[in-house]
Design brief:
Layout (H helix, E strand, L loop, with lengths): L2 H8 L1 E4 L5 E3 L2 H4 L2 E8 L5 E4 L4 E9 L5 E4 L4 E2 L2 E5 L6 E4 L4 E2 L2 E5 L5 E3 L4 E2 L3 E4 L21 E3 L4 E2 L4 E2 L4 E2 L4 E2 L4 E2 L8 E5 L2 E6 L9
Parallel strand pairs: 1-3, 2-4, 3-5, 4-6, 5-7, 5-8, 6-9, 7-10, 8-11, 9-12, 10-13, 11-14, 12-15, 13-16, 14-17, 15-18, 16-19, 17-20, 19-21
Antiparallel strand pairs: 21-22
Length: 211
Amino acid sequence: MNKIYDLIVRNKFLINGVGHEIIIPSGTRRSLKKVTIKVRGNNNRLIIGRGTKITNTEIRLDGENNTIELGENCQFKSGKIYLKNGSNKHIRIGNDTTVEGAYLLTDEQANIEIGRDCMLSTEIMIRTGDKHSILDLHSRKRINHAQDIFIHNRVWIGRGALILKGTRLQEETIVGAKSIVTSSFNTANIIIAGCPAKTVKENIYWDRKLL
């Protein structure tokens, strides 16, 4: 079967606007199954690295001069990757990272960065904003602006975790299942858990294998 035709029949593409750049290596195209890609606005970039496999996922890229990039040899088994509106924003996922099921959403002028060789379980939400406004009673000014999320290399996020605006996680961090993460952690090699998440163990690292 022709490779381009094969890519189209397995997936759904909805492209509006001008100047978009969609980069999917020919060998990677066969690894996209039941994927919906929606691109609107102008001059946006979608980059999917060599050897990456994506299934049962919706990718939405809106606005101007925005970028969604998945590195090489990643797996994204199910979920949504939404970069909505704004300009000069990005969602980036590093090489060798695996995702069982997650919803990534950027609001306003905020970014999401996930490093190399991370391991994300299922039912995870990562979002940079609150969707609605919270206002100061006296000044009537909004106080809940979106903030970047930065997840360093080799972070393991457990099932059902919620990663919210302003979160920063260092290398070799483990996030416990169902945790709600709302702040920065500046120490590597830790386990965090709870609502809100706190450090519960230090001086650890993890392995994908059950040793």
